[in-house]
Amino acid sequence: MTSLDLGPISVSTESSATRTRGGWLLNAGDVQLSHPFGSTTFYRHGWHSWGLTHWALIDEEPVRVRDRERRRLSDDPLLVDHQGHVGNYVGAISGPAGNALLLGALGMDTIVEATSTTLSGTSRGEPAGWFVAYGPEQDVFASYAEAVQGQFGSVRQNPG
User: Residue ranges of the alpha helices (H) in the chain?
Assistant: First the structure.
């Protein structure tokens, strides 16, 4: 078990990790982080530009498109009947004082799932590396954007 020092909190994972600017890089494959936040909110990222992206209470049922056929068009078809809070590529859970614990993929075809005790990332295709950060919400998302740019590059100097 690896313990990641994220400032005011520590999370544990089975994955090996390397410190990087703004967070930690985890080895490619599936990851699971244990977190101390209990019942909190989960940032769910949609599968494509019209997929639902929002913060949701972990203790409540996930928001879904009620019509199953329309749900297939509005979200990841492989998650149409998935139970629990799950999204694609990046997810976060809220901590105290406006902070968030973020888990973001540095690869394609990935899902992020949250419970009251864990934040998990799964690679469905080629194993993906992962970025983990904790801090003010805007800061962790900005650090993740830098990690993605470092992994994939950018057509502009500042992907802003």
Answer: 68-74, 137-152
